[in-house]
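Priority: medium. Attachment 1 of 2:
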């Protein structure tokens, strides 16, 4: 934390501009050595942009740049921060970066700027993670969820639960310290209600974990069915491009083909698979069928495609668990006329050739994985796998505390479980010693962020 760090914050390559960052106690000293303008760096106003030159050790101009100073603690990291906007050439950007390092800065580690922001109290751990979610957002809802988390919505809720837990721990431990002061039945009942309330809030947060996973990774959607029913045509129709080869010859698709698309603001990973049939003499096709079966096991949504123009008893159906929420039946080739035998099914009639029914299928895909609405994500919808583990530990500890209260009411045991829950919730926002957690989180960041 006493070092001054530097990084190229924009992607390395030819562009209109590139941005380099400095953060730390010697930021202005380093900038003074390489930046020339009408005013010395120390006299420049904070949060104002100044035009000048970057020079090398021989005072030769390297580039004409714009320099901005953010003096701590009113900066992203809470330290003195300097940003240099240079021309976006690879060579000139590297040259300025080398000058920053040779004049006293250290190369920043992945995520170190945001890690310093967290350590200096500029944001909690959930907000720090939201920075990466915002960068990686690929759909409208994932962008909204990341923005809401960056505002501190999840951290606020976790902090509120933590404060309530602190009050509970204080109440129980006060009773332990003063055993002669009996808790009357009303107080005991109130304590139980408070534990149940916190447990319910933890479970409510845990219920959003699946939404968070889908927003970050996408809903894995497997298109399956017998050979030559239009699986690849459906992939092409949904994606709007000729992603998969379409042929009247059965067994054209031998391997899985993936395509990412966004439907109603949600990311979906579409997987086109080899046609399923009982027997095949082709080794490659046989291997493709085995891969299809593996994909079915890990799918969030299964779109079973059948030829809706033939009788139902002639169609080869995919063995999928009956009533599975994510199982959608697509009755393709509706342009050729839907056979009456399909009338009793809940399948969606569509035509990959004309596009009829595709909007209904898109809505059904969305409904299969999402219980929110299209207008925006819930403020707490985006808890990630780390949050889930922490809240799960806390919920289990609360359940154990409630069980201890019901059975013998041993205050020491109740206090132990409540403290375990307090520790787990604290890890969500970073209110505990979490060096190992920090290392795992910030190692995923890009250099310069």
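Attachment 2 of 2:
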């Amino acid at each position: 934390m006493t070092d001054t760090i530097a990084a190229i914050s924009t992607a390395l390559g030819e562009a209109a501009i590139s941005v380099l960052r400095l953060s730390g106690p010697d930021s202005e000293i380093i900038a003074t050595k390489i930046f020339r303008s009408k005013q010395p760096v120390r006299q420049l106003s904070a949060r104002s942009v100044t035009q000048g030159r970057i020079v090398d050790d021989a005072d030769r101009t390297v580039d004409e740049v714009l320099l901005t100073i953010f003096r701590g603690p009113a900066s992203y990291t809470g330290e003195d921060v300097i940003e240099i906007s240079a021309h976006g050439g690879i060579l000139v950007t590297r040259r300025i970066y080398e000058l920053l390092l040779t004049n006293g800065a250290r190369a920043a580690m992945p995520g170190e700027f945001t890690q310093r922001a967290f350590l200096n109290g500029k944001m909690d751990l959930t907000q720090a993670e939201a920075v990466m979610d915002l960068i990686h957002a690929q759909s409208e809802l994932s962008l909204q969820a990341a923005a809401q988390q960056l505002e501190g919505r999840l951290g606020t809720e976790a902090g509120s639960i933590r404060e309530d837990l602190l009050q509970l721990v204080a109440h129980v431990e006060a009773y332990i310290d003063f055993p002669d002061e009996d808790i009357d039945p009303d107080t005991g009942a109130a304590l139980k209600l408070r534990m149940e309330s916190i447990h319910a809030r933890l479970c409510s947060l845990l219920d959003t974990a699946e939404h968070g996973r889908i927003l970050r990774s996408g809903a894995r959607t497997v298109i399956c069915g017998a050979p030559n029913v239009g699986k690849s045509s459906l992939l092409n129709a949904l994606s709007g491009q000729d992603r998969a080869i379409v042929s009247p010859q059965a067994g054209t698709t031998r391997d899985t083909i993936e395509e990412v698309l966004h439907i109603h603001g949600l990311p979906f990973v579409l997987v086109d698979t080899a046609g399923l049939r009982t027997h095949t003499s082709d080794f490659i096709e046989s291997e493709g069928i085995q891969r299809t079966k593996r994909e079915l096991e890990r799918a969030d949504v299964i779109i079973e495609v059948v030829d809706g123009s033939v009788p139902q008893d002639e169609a080869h159906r995919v063995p999928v668990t009956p009533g599975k929420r994510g199982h959608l039946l697509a009755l393709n080739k509706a342009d050729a006329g839907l056979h009456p035998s399909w009338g009793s099914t809940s399948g969606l009639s569509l035509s990959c050739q004309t596009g009829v029914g595709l909007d209904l299928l898109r809505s059904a895909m969305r409904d299969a994985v999402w219980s929110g609405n299209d207008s925006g994500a819930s403020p707490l919808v985006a808890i990630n796998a780390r949050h889930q583990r922490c809240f799960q530990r806390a919920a289990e500890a609360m359940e154990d505390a409630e069980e201890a209260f019901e059975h013998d009411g041993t205050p020491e045991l109740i206090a132990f479980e409540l403290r375990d829950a307090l520790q787990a919730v604290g890890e969500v926002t970073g209110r505990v010693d979490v060096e190992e957690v920090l290392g795992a989180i910030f190692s995923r960041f890009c250099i310069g962020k």
